[in-house]
Amino acid sequence: MSATLNLPIIDLSSPDRRSTATSIRQACIEYGFFYLVNHGVNTEFVREVFHHSAKFFSLPLQQKMELARKEYRGYTPLYAEALNPSSKGDPKESYYIGSVADTTLVHLNQWPSEELLPNWRPTMESLFWKLLAAGKELLSLIALSLNLDEDYFEKIGAVNKPAAFLRLLHYPGELGSDEEICGASAHSDYGMVTLLVTDGVPGLQICKEKSRQPQVWEDVSHVEGALIVNIGDLMERWTNCLYQSTLHRVMPTGKERYSLAFFLDPSSDCVVECFKSCCSKSSPPRFPPIRSGDYLNERFKVTYGSEKNLKCSIQSKN
Ligand SMILES: O=C(O)CCC(=O)C(=O)O
Ligand SMILES: [Fe+2]
Predict the structure, then answer these.
(1) Model-level pTM greater than 0.90?
(2) Which of 43, 44, 58, 136 has an alpha carbon within 20 to 30 A of 199's alpha carbon?
(3) 184 lines ligand 1 (CB under 6 A)
């Protein structure tokens, strides 16, 4: 049995931005995870999105494979992805939608036809825009929490062409509850922040101290109407490990589960180097500066193996 955490709840629309920023700082230092409420993505709409997601995943495999992932966009079948590269592949299927905000790459997205799944594409595009808006608003508070100007991520070019991805996930329930098989194996996310929408079925767990052995896993419960936010590896590098990109996984419970993960990553040309407010003489930068696109490319390659056209899929062409 794992303990259940009481993660902090952050109110995105609170007028007291200073105090919200202070709570974000505490949450990111202690957990690297928190709940986000009043984020502008309403519960009714989320229900509709899950309905559309379930419709797609219930199509015959052959039909789903017609939209098989290319350029990191489209359908990924069961076991095709290993979030932990030493695992045999995760028992989940997913569907990736690349940034609809990036005019140079938006054409790479694949969509089921309107005849097959009416209103599917506009619903997913609408979710994308809503999560992008919430994510950008959150980033301004994260900047404040690091004693930076609210528009700092804009100023350094991190969000002008964000390499955002929306991933629809489906964990089939019938695969059993073998302790050894995770729905999503232990991993940290790669980029800035992830906004996660869950359907109420449990399974998500975090390990607060990744280097501690044996690892201690704690359950993250679903809070109706809240998004679950977690810090990614590039944010950890930016903050010199002040903010944790926490290890997490999804354990099977025997129940079918759906989730929606929105990865908000920096524009590929943005150079990620330790924020001045996060290093000092006694605490020098732990990581060399790195171009976001190069870093993400490497991480994608390890997770998905060598995928053709990997480079052009996540690097914007200027
Ligand atoms: O499905 C979930 O709850 C988590 C998914 C996740 O961690 C990921 O896709 O990176
Ligand atoms: Fe994740």
Answers:
(1) yes
(2) 136
(3) yes
Q: Which atom of ligand 1 is nearest to the CA of 83?
A: 10
**Pocket mutation for ligand 1, best pick of 193, 247, 248 (most atoms within 8 Å of C-beta):** 248
The string of pLDDT tens digits covering residues 16-38 is 999 999 999 999 999 999 999 99
DSSP string, the chain: --EEP---EEETT-S-HHHHHHHHHHHHHHTSEEEEES-S--HHHHHHHHHHHHHHHTS-HHHHHTTB-BTTBEEE-TT---SSTTSS--S-EEEEEE-SS-TTTGGG-----TTTSTTHHHHHHHHHHHHHHHHHHHHHHHHHHTTS-TTHHHHTTSSSS---EEEEEEE-GGG---TT--SEEEE---SSEEEEEE-S---EEEES-TTSSS---EE----TTPEEEEE-HHHHHHTTTSS---EEEE---SS-EEEEEEEE---TT-EE---GGG--SSS--SS--EEHHHHHHHHHHHHH-S-TTHHHHHS---
Task: Find out whether the beta carbon of 205 lies less than 6 Å from any atom of ligand 1.
Answer: no
- Does residue 243 have a pLDDT over 50? yes
- Model confidence pLDDT, tens digit, residues 161-171: 888 999 999 99
Q: Which ligand is nearest to the CA of 219?
A: 1
Q: Decide: 189 in ligand 1 pocket, CB within 6 A.
A: yes
ipTM: 0.99
- Per residue in 99-121, pLDDT (tens digit) is 998 888 999 999 999 999 999 99
Q: Which residue has the higher pLDDT, 89 or 143?
A: 143
The average confidence (pLDDT) of the chain is: 91
CA of 115 to the centre of ligand 2 (A): 32
> Which atom of ligand 1 has the smallest separation from the CA of 169?
1
